[in-house]
Amino acid sequence: NRLKASREVESVDLPNCHLIKGIEAGADDIDILPNGLAFLSVGLKCPGLHSFSPDKPGGILMMDLKKENPRALELRISRGFNLASFNPHGISTFIDNDDTVYLFVVNHPEFKNTVEIFKFEEEENSLLHLKTIKHELLPSVNDIIAVGPAHFYATNDHYFSDPFLKYLETYLNLHWANVVYYSPNEVKVVAEGFDAANGINISPDKKYIYVADILAHEIHVLERHPNMNLTQLKVLKLDTLVDNLSIDPSSGDILVGCHPNGQKLFIYDPNNPPSSEVLRIQNILSEKPTVTTVYANNGSVLQGSSVASVYDRKLLIGTLYHRALYCEL
Required co-factor (predicted)? Predict the structure, then answer.
């Protein structure tokens, strides 16, 4: 039941879509700046998870969604950063008061857990590496939402970092996953009790944090306090494995990349590939939020959707380890 192992999807097609050239091994997370520049985290590898290019390191791609036919270009990363072991997972951008753009990247070099902070150099199409963060309260980081130049909330999808203990933790359904607040002065657990905390994002007014619990099929709404602590406000139950969360800047709606059937995702069979599903959630704070299916596919086009981000009627859908889709709505 946690994997929704028997679920199949009815296709919901969008008319103006094409696969993005150059993305063949996943675009797990996507974040779009207010000016239409989209960052895509590509090439994630996890123990036990399928990969279409197991020997190629991951990277960060960029697309300019203001352009007519945007292409995905790989961003150069400053010297001194270990590119060979780059294994990017969740990402988040932060724009400082002086318009400096920071890119935060969850990284798993040799399957360890770090958060990398880069400065985006737009003129050079490059990332300048500023800092690597490791911390005992970040044992199994999945996703991140930046709230300052070195400040963020992050999800741990497991309590343990050891692969066997992780497996046991999931198998025993311990609900020990959590959300951590990190700043240079203070690091603390601010929410806990998740089955597997995954995607995280923030409301446009910055008052609420949204957390996807992938194996519980839930989105949690947490209220932020001045001391950065969180208290749970409500839980929205869904019939699918919820992965990454994005905010539609024009409406405040939440877009969710989902896995209708987790068993197909984790046990890969090319003849019965994992399906894809994108949900839009309107008015999540209301008594009855509206949940609509934006896109669904049985895996014939797109396998294992993990994120959907929108900018000015343009939609990007990324996947855990397959291709990525560009649609004009």
Answer: Ca(2+)
Q: How far, rounded to the nearest angstrom, does the alpha carbon of residue 173 sit from its chain's CA centroid?
A: 22
**Catalytic residue chosen out of the listed positions 89, 108, 217, 220:** 89
* Residue 134 CB contacts under 8 Å (≥ 6 apart), including other chains: 112, 113, 114
Q: What is the 3-state secondary structure (H, E, C) of 108-167?
A: CHHHCCEEEEEEEECCCCEEEEEEEECCCCCCCEEEEEEEECCEEEEEECCCCCCHHHHH
CA 295 to CA 287: how far, in whole Å?
25
16 labelled ligand-binding: no
The string of pLDDT tens digits covering residues 88-134 is: 999 999 999 999 999 999 999 999 999 999 999 999 999 999 999 99
Q: Give the global pTM.
A: 0.96
Q: Rounded to the nearest 5 degrees, what angle is found at the Cα of 73, between the Cα atoms of 80 and 266?
A: 85
How far is 184 from 223, CA to CA, in rounded Å?
Answer: 22
Q: Helix, strand, or coil here: 262?
A: helix
Contacts with 224 (C-beta within 8 Å, 6 or more apart), sequence order: 206, 207, 208, 209, 230
113 is in an annotated binding site: no
Q: Residue 28 annotated as binding?
A: yes
Which element (helix H / strand E) includes 168? helix 163-171
266-297 residue pLDDT tens: 999 999 999 999 999 999 999 999 999 999 99
Rounded to 5°, the CA angle 255-258-263 comes to 175
